[in-house]
Amino acid sequence: MAASSVAGQRSVADALQDVAQRVEAAGSKAGRAKPPRLVAVSKTKPAEAVREAYDAGHRTFGENYVQELLDKAPLLPSDIQWHFIGHLQSNKVKALVEGVPNLSMIETVDSAKLADRIDRCVAGAGRKEPLAVAVQVNTSGEESKYGVEPADVVALATHVAKACPHLRLAGLMTIGMPDYSSRPENFECLAKCRDEVAAALGMSPDDLELSMGMSGDFEAAIAMGSTNVRVGSTIFGARDYSAKK
Ligand SMILES: *Cc1c(COP(=O)(O)O)cnc(C)c1O
Q1: Number of domains in the chain
Q2: Which of 41, 69, 139, 214 is buried deepest, with most CB atoms within 10 A?
Q3: What tens digit of pLDDT does each residue of 9-42 get?
Q4: Which UniProt key words apply to this protein (predicted)?
Q5: For residue 195, what are the domain limits?
């Protein structure tokens, strides 16, 4: 048994393998040529837990808090692909982009101002490739601080694609409901927004990713088109937020 496993709790490696198999099975059931990407969400978890998943062969991880990622990334191998999936304030973009050279995607772009800021910082950091970003969409129709309204997605995606040369529009992302649960309507809404963006930009819908699905619903999300699921607690165990301010 792996060192980190506790009585009654599976090791990170075992849980990861189980989730990865379920992601792959859901992908082939949905007829995908390429299996969806599994982002292992390690927020609030120590670098050792990430290391255990890394040693089991996993390379893509997601974090929500800039300072936590800045602390964790240097302790871990540089071939990790980090996805930033938390709310991002403009005044933290520079630290994030410069401090995490192996940042692979920012999934939470929700304003042109933020996109412009990331674009400038990517240029300033001298990254060789454009940084992949996703536009975060509020698909719940409920009051939410984060994510653009569906009606505003095409405008923001067009801004990223046309006015941000150091960014690559990777696709769209949603959390779902304000309580972090999701309904089929959230997934349908994101897929519809993706089709509208593709039409507006003359792209194939297949060239735009859908980041949707978390621990409780990633298989349902894949069935409805997700190409990028973000799974935390099912891999790393329940989170303890007591250390967070
Ligand atoms: C925490 C978080 C996740 C993972 O949630 P789980 O339910 O633990 O799988 C996914 N996406 C975002 C944006 C998150 O903040």
Answers
A1: 1
A2: 139
A3: 689 999 999 999 999 999 999 999 999 999 999 9
A4: Pyridoxal phosphate
A5: 31-236
